[in-house]
Each structure stands twice: as structure tokens, then as C-alpha cells.
Amino acid sequence: MKDDVLRGFIAACKPEEPVSPHDHRHFDFDAAELRLRGAPWRERLTKVIRLASEPSAQLVTGLRGSGKTTELRQLQETLVQAGYHVVMADAGQWLGDDRPLETEDLMLALVLALYPEGKPEGVKTWVREWANKAQNFFKSDVELSGDAESVRLQLTTDETVFERVAKQLRERDGLRRQVHSLLADAGEASREAGEELVILLDGAEKRAVGDLHEHARRAEFHNHWFGSFILRGRDLKPPVHVVYTVPPFMVRRGAELAANFGSELHFLPMVRVYDRRSSLDRAGVEAMTRALFKRIPAEHFADAVTPRWLAAQSGGYFRDLLRFVTEMVYQVGHEPQFTRAHAEAAVSRIRQTYLEALVREDKQVLARVHPSKAFPDEESAQLRMDSLLQGFKMFRYHNGEAWYDAHPLCWAELGFADDLPSWEQLAEIHG
Q1: Among 116, 146, 231, 412, which is disulfide-ready with 417 (CB 3.0 to 4.6 Å)?
Q2: Interval 28-54: pLDDT, tens
Q3: Which of 258-262, 313-317, 321-325, 370-374 has the lowest mean pLDDT?
Q4: How far is it, in rounded angstroms, from Cα 233 to Cα 423?
């Protein structure tokens, strides 16, 4: 293949790049005729907001690269069409990884999400007026200087400034109340303008999770996440509608979150390419394949089975499917099409990255998860859930109810090589 063609494939298959609902690469796995991830959580989030008699705060999660940002963008579009004023912000750009999360970090992120980028003169009247109030708060109470644009720039580009302001919020109860008052003013102004305010705070779940620390320190990072929503959740329920993205490990304390924060945790699952008997789900495999063809057209594969085999190996994790084909791009050289040999070599290479991080304790738990499709309930196993989800070694699926499975790339290592579909089986479901 020519370099310019391969270069285009690399650009189209960036695993870390969220796509908007209007991007030609977007594929809706939750379309009514598919429902490959159970009941779409964007529909549930919309209903909660539209039927609420008072401002709501909701929590969503899912593995990195599973499509959360794309889902939130679709939610934003739906709500805007219904007359809401929706602000979506990437809080991950403001939070750090060197210390555990604090409730005040998220409170400050809510204010920054509303703060207009650039010159406030170019935004709606009520937003401009609210920005002036926020500017006065930052200048008088937390001692930031400059105009509205300068204040926002300091907070969003200088991590030490963000941390200093968050620290002041922690140390002075009155400042936290003022933040709620600021958000209440924004909510009231939006209602007077005829549009209910909704803040979608995306990206925070990627930060301050302690993945690079040893077990005890990592547990401290995790406990700060739990504490923010379970013990101090009231501070994170401002008088406007809010949706937070949180790390997937929080699913193991979903009942406590629901009881103390007052919101069910909505998990965005993988696309269902196997059923609970480990048999191929034809609809799921075909949907993953069609989604891939939006990035790499079918004619670039030497046969129709190869992309479907790749979809099955991914376990319904579209980011891994993109990793497979990216690796194939680097291997194909001057051959005219991607072959089965390219696919097998790419999957083998990606599989090795998973197996190198698969410790004995993980194997013991996953060897029970795969045949049962349920996560063991004893405490020793529950402690492994964090690393299994954060490390993408275990996936969650929905159809009727939630269930779990090991990543198919780990099945052979766990002693379940016979459950992996053969090329012949993939050819049969395609035929």
C-alpha cells in the first residue's frame, strides 16, 4: 500500500481520539435495532434531567476509550434540542495526578466549566453577567488578578494556581458556600433566559487515580474518589443539573454511592460480541466490523473474515480494534491488502502487552470470572476489581443485566483457548 493511504488510516484510527456524533467515523452501537450495550445510558440521563423537579447530579463511568465522551456529546445534542443550555468541559485538563482528588477540585472545575473562553462579550448576556460575578469572586476572595479572560487563563493553564485556589476552598467553609451561590446564580439566570442549565463534567476520571503508585498509595487515591461522593457528596450537588464522569473502579461501591450521593452509577459497557455462554454474538461482531469500515474500507482487507476475526479478538472494546489495525498498518509494507497473517501478528503483539501485566492474583480471579460471567463476591477478589478494570483485563457487558468477562486476549492464558473462535467459525457467521 502507498504511504499516503497508510498515513490516512493512522489518522482515522487514533485510539485516544473521541469522535463527535457528526463525524463520518461515528457508529451508534446503541441504535434501536442494535442495543448492543443494553439500555443506552444517555437516554436514562436525559430522562432524569427532563423529569426532575429540582437540579440533579448523576454519575457515569466506563473504561477509557469505551465511548463516554461521544455518548456525552450525544446527550448534549439531545438536551440542546430540547431547549437546555448545556456546557460540556474536560475537567481532566485542570486536575493533576500527583495528589489525591479533593471535593474542592471538582467544585472549582464546575465554575471553570461555566467560565466563558476568550472574551465574554461573545457569549449570551446571562453568561457574561455571571462571568463578571465569578471574576469578582476570584479577584476578591482568592486573590487572582486581571480581567475575565486572564483569570480563566491562570486557572486553566497553571496547575499551581488551580491547586492554590482549591486549597483555599478546602480551608475556608465560606468559600465553598460562595461557589454554590455562584452556581445557583448561573442556574437562576439560565432559567430566566428560558433555558435550564446542565453541566457535563467529562475527563476527571482519568486523573488522580494513583495507577502508577504501589498498592497502599493507590488505595489512598481511590478512597479520596469514594470520599468525595459518598462522604462529601452534598458539596458536589450544586443547584444546577450536573453529570460527572468517575473512574470505573467506583462500580464496586455502587450501592453506597446510590444511598449517599443519591444517584445510580451508570456504567458504559463494551459492545457485546459474545454471549454469556462465550458464543459469538453475530450482531455485535457485524456492528464492530461496520464501525471499522467507516475508518478502513472493506476493500483493503484480503478477505471478509479478517475484520470480523479482529472484532471478536477485541472483546467489543473498540479502542483495541483500532490498536490492532494500527499495528497492521505498520506491518503491511507494500502488500496490496491486509491479510490474516497481518491480523494474527498484530493481535499477538497487543496480546503480549496484556499478558506482561497479568499477575498471578489477576489470573486466579479471571479464571473464575470467565466461565461464570460473574465477579466473585469475597473481599479478596473485590480488591482485584480495581486493577482488572483499570488495566482493561476485564470487561463489563449489559443485556438485561450486567455481567463480566475476561478480555479475550487473556482467555488462552487462563486455560480457555478452546473458547476463542476459529477462522472457520467466523466464516460461518459471516456466511
Answers
A1: 412
A2: 999 999 999 998 889 999 999 999 999
A3: 258-262
A4: 50
- Structural domains of the chain sorted by starting position, each given as residue range(s) with its CATH number in brackets: 1-38+270-431 (no CATH), 41-268 (3.40.50)
- Alpha carbon of 345 to those of 36, 69, 181, 240, 351: distances in Å? 28, 31, 58, 51, 10
| Residues 220-269: tens digit of each pLDDT | 999 999 999 999 999 999 999 999 999 999 998 899 999 989 889 999 99
CA atoms within 13 A on the CB side of 185: 18
8, HSE (Cβ side, Cα atoms, 13 Å): 11
pTM of the model: 0.91
DSSP for residue 120: G
Q: Is it the case that residue 313 has pLDDT exceeding 70? A: yes
Report the distance separating Cα 235 and Cα 101, nearest Å. Answer: 14
Q: List Cα–Cα distances, 95 to 46, 133, 173, 413, 421, in angstroms.
A: 27, 24, 21, 37, 42
Other CB atoms within a 10 A radius of the CB of residue 102 amount to 20
Whether the Cβ atoms of residue 201 and residue 243 lie closer than 8 Å to each other: yes
- Between residues 219 and 311, the one the model is more confident about: 311
Quick check: 88 and 204 in contact, CB under 8 A? no
Asked whether the beta carbons of 288 and 243 are under 8 A apart, the reply is: no
Task: For the sheet with 197-202, list strands across it.
Answer: 85-90, 197-202, 241-245, 57-62, 265-268
Q: What span, in angstroms and rounded, lies between the C-alpha atoms of 14 and 11?
A: 6
Q: What pLDDT digit, counting tens, does each position of 145-167 carry?
A: 766 667 777 777 777 788 888 88
Cell of 360: 498471578
DSSP H helices, 117-200, are 125-140, 148-157, 159-171, 173-192
- Residue 87: strand pairing partners: 199
Q: How far apart are CA 139 and CA 275, in angstroms?
A: 57
Q: What is the CA radius of gyration of the chain?
A: 23
The sign of the dihedral angle between the CA atoms of 160, 161, 164, 169 is: negative
Cα separation, 342 vs 355, whole angstroms: 20
